[in-house]
Automatic annotation (TrEMBL):
It holds the Pfam family NMT1_2. Signal peptide: none annotated. InterPro entries: NrtA/CpmA_ABC-bd_dom (IPR044527). Transmembrane segments: none annotated. It comes from Ectopseudomonas mendocina S5.2. It comes from the Bacteria. This is Nitrate transporter. Keywords: Cell inner membrane, Cell membrane, Membrane, Signal, Transport.
Length: 403
């Protein structure tokens, strides 16, 4: 490790002094995705032990299963979809709402929308071509995402709507766990999907279709996975939660530090206990090297990143609020929540600041401003108006949400 990877003496006191973890053995859930990297590295490469923690990793087969195990206490914390944490907080698709906590952001970028080979063969290789196909054919297309309130559902809906396709009226949407996307595509059960790596790259590698857009093309440096837990766990085990943040922060900093570290991490992820996918599918996009199956190759300006000097890891209030605006936009919420108040409850800003400061990691502001592909600006200043600002929406609808 480099010199700046060594924590300050007061950082070590979290583990060995009066702030020792209340719980030293943690069960942490993750999904088979490239963006689980910092959690896996923290657990397996000595970062957790430094803070008095032993992490037992538990790969989950679906986001719904991960959610249920978080709520039951079987998992202490997890690599989680942003929208999953907020969906549970707001009681969407669960018996009752449960107070949740986002300890830190795990990554930005690294998700894509793919279309099937049959659509590609029919010349549907752009948003405009897809819009024409959808509106000119009676047969409805079926798109897969990974969880009804998850990031992939919201990215898919946002992008389809930006192309003039209503995601709830013009196409069908189904939930498919990330590692199963390839088999569903092969079987012809879906016409496209939105998911994280390496599954979009693997589909292109196997000539099962094309990548139509990356999500970072829609929102550069968009929020993605988080380290999530119930708020009860964070409140009952603050030293443990702080130590866990510090371990994952150090792992994230290590991954982003060099191409060599990224390559070794990609190799680790490819193992059967973790992502269990060919290194050839993981490594290129992990390093920002894209090819879309349409003859285009590029080095992405906004690649999958885990730290970026702390810019990735701050649990920004505006990031959490954005997902709530989309829940409202698509009828998952019947009325506007108190966006800022909910985000202040969920985002563990003070705990994160303590952990980052102890590691000499800069903590950016609690809000950030972004320009999305359609030209809209999101800065968290007026979330209710933002939710109402879109031409395509389902604000008047209240469909049942089955998770």
């Amino acid at each position: 490790m480099s010199e700046h990877d060594t924590p300050r003496d007061d950082a070590l006191s979290w583990a060995w002094g009066s702030n020792a973890p209340e719980k030293s053995v943690l069960n942490i859930g993750f999904m088979a995705l490239s963006d689980s990297a910092s959690v896996i590295v923290a657990a397996t490469q000595g970062f957790a032990e430094k803070y008095g923690l032993s992490i037992r990793l538990h790969r989950q087969s679906s986001w719904a299963g991960l959610r249920d195990r978080l709520l039951s206490g079987e998992l202490d914390a997890a690599h989680s979809l942003y929208g999953l944490i907020y969906g549970v907080q707001l009681g969407l698709g669960v018996g009752s709402a449960t107070d949740m906590a986002v300890l830190m952001g795990l990554n930005q970028n690294g998700q894509s929308i793919n279309l099937s080979h049959s659509l590609q063969a029919a010349g549907v290789t752009s948003g405009e071509a897809l819009r024409k196909h959808v509106h000119q054919h009676k047969a409805r297309l079926t798109f897969a995402q990974t969880f009804p309130t998850g990031t992939h559902a919201m990215w898919l809906y946002y992008w389809l709507a930006s192309q003039g396709i209503h995601p709830l009226r013009d196409v069908d949407s189904v939930v498919v766990p990330p590692p199963q996307m390839i088999e569903h595509l092969k079987a012809g059960r879906i016409d496209g999907f939105c998911v994280g790596e390496p599954w979009t790259a693997k589909a292109v590698d196997e000539q099962l279709g094309c990548t139509l857009t990356t999500i970072q093309a829609i929102w550069p440096d968009h929020p993605e996975k988080v380290l999530g837990c119930t708020r009860a766990f964070a409140e009952q085990n603050p030293n443990t939660a702080r130590a866990l943040i510090m371990a994952v922060l150090e792992a994230a900093r290590f991954i982003d530090e060099s191409e060599e570290n990224k390559r070794s991490t990609a190799q680790l992820l490819s193992g059967s206990d973790y992502v269990d996918a060919p290194l050839s599918a993981i490594s290129p996009r992990f390093l920002g090297q894209y090819q879309d199956g349409l003859g285009h190759a590029w080095l992405d300006e906004h690649p999958l990143r885990f730290h970026a000097g702390g810019l990735v890891n701050q649990p920004y209030l505006s990031d959490g609020m954005w997902f709530m605006t989309q829940f409202r936009r698509w009828g998952l919420l019947r009325s506007d929540p108190d966006y800022l108040a909910v985000a202040l409850q969920v985002q563990q800003l003070a705990l994160y600041r303590e952990a980052a400061t102890a590691l000499d990691i800069v903590v950016p502001g609690e809000m950030r401003s972004s320009i999305l592909q359609d030209g809209s600006c999101w800065d968290g200043s007026d979330p209710a108006a933002y939710a109402r600002s879109f031409r395509l929406h389902a604000l008047a609808e209240s469909p049942a949400v089955a998770l």
